[in-house]
Amino acid sequence: MRRALRMFVRHKGALVGTALVLLFVAVAFTAPWIAPHDPLAQDLSARLLPPSSAHTLGTDDFGRDVLSRVLWGSRVSLRLGITAVLIALLVGGTIGLFAGYYGGWFDLLGMRFMDLMLAFPSILLAIVVVAILGPSLTNAMIAVGVMAVPQYARIVRASVLSVRGLEYVQAARALGATDLRILGRAILPNVLGPILVNASLGLATAVLEAAGLSFLGLGAQPPTPEWGSMLSQGRELVLIAPKSYAKITKPKDIGRKTIIAFGAGCTYRRCLENWLAKAKVVPDHVMVPAGIPRRAIDDMKEDPRPLHEFH
User: Fold this and answer.
1) CA torsion, ordered 283, 286, 292, 295, to nearest 10 deg
2) Tens digit of each residue's pLDDT (9 = 90 or more) over 178-204
3) pTM
4) CATH 1.10.3720.10 fits 2-38+68-309, yes or no
């Protein structure tokens, strides 16, 4: 673990990315206290003002403070991204876990259905889901989550296939462990690397896809302060009020930096793989019946003989 941490500290890109992610999370949680104005308060006498000391990023066509709306928009984007990733991870991860472990007809039907979903462009699939459920922020979360289910299902399935035949899994099965215990305590901890990395990168993708839906009018509805809807509303004002450029550029710039920051997940994966490479192949939490010492399991790991030759 220390070696992985040292590797992480030496990687400048990972440090910068982590700092930006922490800054984004901190802004999202503290937006009610650091926002200078109410993001929903309208003042038509102060509409389309350029940046000034009273309004750092100016105001929109309803006189609302752009900076306050950007700060509050980070809360909406963070909640949306986390919810979408959790939906995709729980549904797709469960399908991939059972498909990779049991195989057979469940694996065949499950993966063919995932292939069918992958045949559609992701944004088109999200638009179909929102069109069925109706345009709203909650339905946008569901749509973005459903859109990412095949990706998580395939990643988890491939990871499970790579470890389900290893000796420690066979040892746990021979010692009487149930399938659920093997899946939860022997296989799942050893496939967390790709899952965590994909979740980190998927969070950035979820924020981007949700902003795209809101930009099209299928996500967050006015007057909710959301980056995509702010871009959609602001694009019409560029020619009318050029000095209010911050309304359309700042949400875009902050969103771009957020997506790049979450891209540091590739470094997280390298650090995690470095740590897992030093860990035991046989997890300490594999169930061992009474009377069989832990050393027997370790010997099975170190002995080159096949599992069936142990007596």
Assistant:
1) 0
2) 888 888 888 888 788 778 778 877 888
3) 0.78
4) yes
